[in-house]
What does this fold into?
Amino acid sequence: MPDFDRIDLMNYAMYGNDFDPQWDEIRAFLKTNVSAQKELEEIKRTVPSPHVGKKRRENINPSDPRESNGGGGMSPEPRNQIADPETKSWWQKILGE
It folds into this structure.
């Protein structure tokens, strides 16, 4: 049976499961090696799981147009219609509004 190092245990902690046959050897190793079991438990406590979810970016670039309106590019306030009939936008002129 091959020996597995800490990186192998980290990979198993992050991506391994009890159903995939590619992890059979490391599961067998963990069943027979008590120190590897303890190390795996320590890794599971300290390494965050990739399945928990992604965190939102902490540092938002203020010049990024996708982030400038608070999220999703949608303005929380509805756009005001232009009150002056003389200043129609190009699409209003085309539609005849």
Remarks:
- The mean pLDDT is 76.
- Residues 34-46 form the longest helix (13 residues).
- Helices lie at 6-15, 24-32, 34-46, 90-95.
